[in-house]
Design goal:
With 389 residues, this protein is mainly alpha-helical. The protein has helices at 13-18, 25-32, 34-47, 57-70, 74-86, 91-99, 108-122, 129-132, 134-137, 142-172, 225-234, 242-247, 251-266, 273-287, 290-304, 308-315, 324-338, 345-353, 358-381; strands spanning 200-201, 204-205, 210-213, 382-385. InterPro entries: AhpD-like, AhpD_core, CHP04029_CMD-like, CMD-like, Uncharacterised_peroxidase-rel.
Length: 389
């Protein structure tokens, strides 16, 4: 069994890159959710563990450099550029990751890895079964496919977390502004449905769906003790879920990811559970993840006892929202999903104008960012299974 990863706050990569220090407002807000910070760092440590088999450390760092260049995230790209050079990647391979042209890679294996990365970063819905199966064809084993998929999905989360925290820090340094006038709800968007009603629009639904992996999952009967322990920690139904049974090919990466997810979505206080689910549904709708949108639409309705805003999100997320607060949550969720580099102090101020405080803004940032991660796994490792008609 792998040694447990121990979190040391003084080694926190996100804090160091952004320049967050004890005593500053954004630092204190972030570390109120210490479990999230610890699992974020734990995920980074697990994904870049030099001893992790399947993909070399240099390959993983080339993926990280490539992903953070094309997103883009200058802070993270500079970090990974330094690390990949230290890891011994060739200048030619680094040049390919910098140029954004997978076809120029020195080997078919690296070309396939970087092309898969490009699809998941730029348009995750294109990470379909055909895209996934280019990896085994290029000599990437199933456990290494899990590593690569988790890595690209984690980088998508990390980029958005850093962008949001940078924006929060930027606003922290400005004079306190008077609250602006929140936008009025769009009067043309009147979608309403009775609680419990089935909603279907543009391929999205709030019906209960199943999910099926495209590659071999772990057999619980022959799983290692560590794999079984991680499944039991992750979710009550993990042992019968293709999703968890596939991800547990790399148990420590799944452990850190599950810890982050559970701390983000279920921690008490801060942003309401319903609004975290709403942010997740906006993100899933934008990314085209039918399965995640279904699950979190249902959870929103269970918590809020209404679903009219879900009908709106499925129909047109850009105009969805029954209140100024929901409109602001939607606008931020769309921006951080589609263009994280554009998120700035004004983006955070707009949330404050709608009544969110710093802790609630952090929770929204976390829930939006973790679905950059979750959507990419659901979209690139398998497919939803719809109820039989």
């Amino acid at each position: 069994m792998a040694e447990p990863i121990v979190y040391n706050v003084t080694d926190d990569l996100v804090d160091r890159l952004i320049g967050l220090a004890p005593g500053a407002k954004t630092y204190e807000v972030r570390h109120f959710r210490e479990k999230v910070a610890a699992a974020t760092q734990g995920s980074y440590d697990a994904l870049f563990d030099p001893a992790l088999p399947g993909l070399s450390l240099a390959e993983r760092l080339l993926v990280a450099l490539y992903a953070t260049r094309i997103t883009p995230s200058p802070l993270l790209a500079a970090h990974y550029r330094k690390r990949v050079a230290e890891a011994g990647a060739t200048p030619a391979d680094i040049a390919v990751a910098e140029s954004g042209k997978p076809s120029d890679a020195a080997t078919p294996r690296l070309a396939a890895i970087l092309e898969f990365t490009r699809k998941l970063i730029e348009k995750p819905v294109e990470g379909d079964e055909a895209a996934l199966k280019t990896l085994p064809a290029a000599g990437v084993s199933t456990p290494a496919v899990v590593t690569l998929s988790q890595l690209v999905a984690f980088l998508s989360y990390q980029v958005r977390l850093v962008a949001g925290l940078e924006a929060m820090k930027a606003l922290e340094g400005q004079p306190e502004r008077a609250a602006g006038t929140p936008p009025a709800p769009f009067p043309a968007n009147t979608a309403a449905t009775a609680p419990g009603a089935v909603i279907k629009a543009h391929g999205f639904t709030n019906e209960s769906l199943e999910w099926k992996a495209w590659l071999d999952v772990v057999n619980v009967e022959t799983a290692t003790p560590e794999q079984v322990a991680v499944l039991e920690e992750s979710h009550p139904k993990a042992k019968v879920s293709d999703y968890y049974l596939f991800l547990v090919h790399q148990p420590e990466i799944l452990r850190q990811r599950s810890t982050a997810f559970n701390a983000i979505m279920y921690a008490p206080g801060g942003l309401s559970r319903a609004e975290r689910e709403l942010g997740s549904t906006y993100v899933s709708r934008i990314n085209g993840c039918v399965y995640c949108a279904s699950v979190h639409a249902q959870r929103f309705e269970q918590l809020a006892k209404r679903n009219e805003v879900i009908a709106q999100v499925f129909e047109d997320p850009a105009t969805a929202g029954t209140t100024a607060r929901e409109l602001a949550i939607g606008k931020f969720s769309i921006q951080i999903t589609e263009a994280p580099a554009s998120v700035n102090a004004d983006s955070i101020q707009a949330l404050k104008d709608a009544g969110l405080n710093e802790g609630e803004i952090l929770d929204l940032l976390h829930s939006d960012a973790i679905f950059a991660w979750a959507n990419r796994l659901m979209l690139n490792l398998g497919e939803p299974v719809f109820p039989k008609a």
